[in-house]
Amino acid sequence: MPVTRGFFRRRPEGPEGRLPPGQYDTGSGWPVLTAEATPLIRPEAWTMTVDGLVERPTTWNWDQVQQLPSSTYTGDIHCVTTWSKFDVAFTGVSVDVLLDAAGPLPEAAFVMAHSSTGYTTNLPLSDLTGGKAWVVWEYGGKPLAREHGGPVRLLVPHLYFWKSAKWVSRLELMARDQPGFWERNGYHDRGDPWLEQRYQGD
Ligand SMILES: Nc1nc2c(c(=O)[nH]1)N[C@H]1C(S)=C(S)[C@@H](COP(=O)(O)O)O[C@H]1N2
Ligand SMILES: [Mo]
C-alpha cells in the first residue's frame, strides 16, 4: 500500500529545544491578533507614562524615548494560540531604563500595562525587570508595523505574547495583582509558555 507523503512530512519545529509544549513553528509568517480596531497613532502624538506606585511618575514623548539607550531583543516569541516564531529582532528601550527613571516604591509588586486603545494586561513587576522586557518601535530594523502595535508596543518575550501589549502607553505599578483584558476572560495571570500557563488554573 502506498504511503502518503503527508505521513512522513514533519512540522518544522525550529531549533532543537526552543519550542515550548503544545506550540508549533509558524515559520516566516507573523499572525496578527488584535481584539480592538487597529488605531492610527502618529509618533508625535504618542507618549509613554510610568506611574502608580513610583517615586516620580514620568512621561516620555517620542523624541525623549529615542534619546534613551536602545537595545535589541533577538530570540523567540510564543502566542497562546499555539504559534511560536523563532529569531525575531525587536529594538527599543529596556523597561529597566523606564523603571529606573520612575523609581518603583518598595510596595510595587505588579504592573498593569495599558494600551491607548484600552487593552490591558497584568504582569508581576519581576517579569519586567532584569533585562527581560522592552518597549519597542522597530522590528527587523524597520519601524514596527501598525497592525503589530506600531509605533510602540511592549515586548515580554519570555511570557505568552498576549502580555506584549500593542500600542502601549502606560505602565501602572500596583501593590496587588489585578486581571487585565484577557486575564478577566480566562487567560492565566502569569502566562509562562514553558509551564504551559495558558488559562486560569493551569
Ligand atoms: N492592544 C493590544 N495588544 C495586544 C493584543 C490586542 O488584542 N490588543 N493581542 C495580544 C495577543 S493575544 C497577542 S498573541 C499579540 C499579537 O501580536 P501580533 O498581532 O503582533 O502578532 O499581541 C498581544 N497584544
Ligand atoms: Mo495571543
How would the blueprint of this fold be written?
Elements: H1 5-8, E1 24-25, E2 47-52, E3 58-61, H2 62-67, E4 70-78, E5 83-94, H3 95-102, E6 110-115, E7 120-124, E8 134-139, E9 142-143, E10 153-155, E11 168-174, H4 181-184
Parallel strand pairs: 1-5, 2-11
Antiparallel strand pairs: 2-3, 4-5, 5-8, 6-7, 6-11, 8-9, 8-10
Mean pLDDT: 93
CATH class: Alpha Beta
Which segments are poorly predicted (pLDDT under 50) over 5 or more consecutive residues?
A: 1-10
N/C terminus separation = 43 Å
Q: Percent of residues in helical segments?
A: 10-25%
C-alpha Rg (nearest Å): 18 Å
How is this structure best described in words?
With 202 residues, the chain is mainly β. It has one domain: Sulfite Oxidase, Chain A, domain 2 (Alpha-Beta Complex). It is built from four helices and eleven strands, in the order H-E-E-E-H-E-E-H-E-E-E-E-E-E-H. The protein has helices at 5-8, 62-67, 95-102, 181-184, and strands spanning 24-25, 47-52, 58-61, 70-78, 83-94, 110-115, 120-124, 134-139, 142-143, 153-155, 168-174. Strands 1, 4, 5, 8, 9 and 10 form a six-stranded mixed beta sheet that branches. It has a five-stranded mixed beta sheet with strand order 3-2-11-6-7. A hairpin with a 2-residue loop joins strand 8 (134-139) and strand 9. The longest helix has 8 residues, at 95-102. The protein is globular.
